[in-house]
Amino acid sequence: MGNNGEFEEKFMNNKIRKTILEIIHNGGASHVASALSLVEILDTVFKNCEIIKIKNADIDRDRVILSKGHGTSALYATMFHYGLISNEELQTYFINGSVLSGHTSHHVPFVEHSTGALGHGLPVGVGMAIGLRSRNLNSKVYVIVGDGELHEGSNWEAIMFAGHEKLKNLVVLVDCNELSQVGRIEECCSIEPLESKFRSFNFEVFDIDGHDEKKIDQAIKKSTGMELPRAILCRTIKGKGISFMEGNNLWHYKSPQGEDYEKALSELS
């Protein structure tokens, strides 16, 4: 990617991050750090989808499921920048009576599945992939899970079955920001080595920088001839883009207000 492409990509990523900050600030919501680590992942996934098919609810559209539903402000901010949510609706995020609640909801148009109870998105995504294959459709199912979410056993049941079925239309992207709600993954309950775990379940695996869209895109598109489901381990930083939020698990719960909010915005300008 040339310098212009990299500049445009960073500009878009900053726009999405600013949008996340704004709607979380306005609604008094939390989970800002969890959302910020997702930006490049979600932006790249939507770049690989035909947005017009999502808008038209075509049967052969690609499906996107954010299983770590507490990061939903990132999903809604990205959908807004791709024309799937209006600005008027977006500004109601986390406000009483809004359909845009703090966890992802299928009541929002173009959202495939309600998530937030961790470990539910991937099993549903596996079912979607099987359904699309049964209709001979070439659509992909993208499921974004958190590394802390992989403590849920339902994920491993889904991974085992997806590998058994060789669901080549399934792409699992793991937001590996190394932090769960209570602390570091390796200290709470280590899930490494993730790469060999996924391979043992019959997945093709890519272990990459989760803030490099070019690498994420290559991992999605790379043709290897292996007829297997794909796992992309995206190594990310929780709170990415805001110096005082990066790697600081207090921002799993805190809402950016006052001077914190102004400083965060200034860092993205």
Can you walk me through this structure?
The model has no long low-confidence stretch (mean pLDDT 96). Helix 1 packs across helix 5 (72-81), helix 3 (39-47) packs across helix 11 (213-221) and helix 7 (121-134) packs parallel to helix 8 (153-165). The protein has a five-stranded parallel sheet with strand order 1-2-3-5-4, with helices on both faces. 43% of the residues lie in helices and 11% in strands. The protein contains twelve helices and five strands. It has one domain (3-267): 3-Layer(aba) Sandwich (Rossmann fold). It is an alpha/beta fold and 269 residues long.
Strand content: 5-15%
Would you report the number of β strands?
A: 5
Shape: globular
Overall pLDDT, averaged?
Answer: 96
The CATH architecture classification is: 3-Layer(aba) Sandwich
Helical region count? 12
* H/E series: HHHHEHHHEHEHHEHEH
Summarize the biggest pleated sheet.
5 strands, parallel
End-to-end C-alpha gap: 23 Å
How many structural domains are formed by the residues?
1
State the CATH topology. Rossmann fold
Radius of gyration: 17 Å
**What order do the strands of the largest sheet run in, or round the barrel if closed?**
1-2-3-5-4
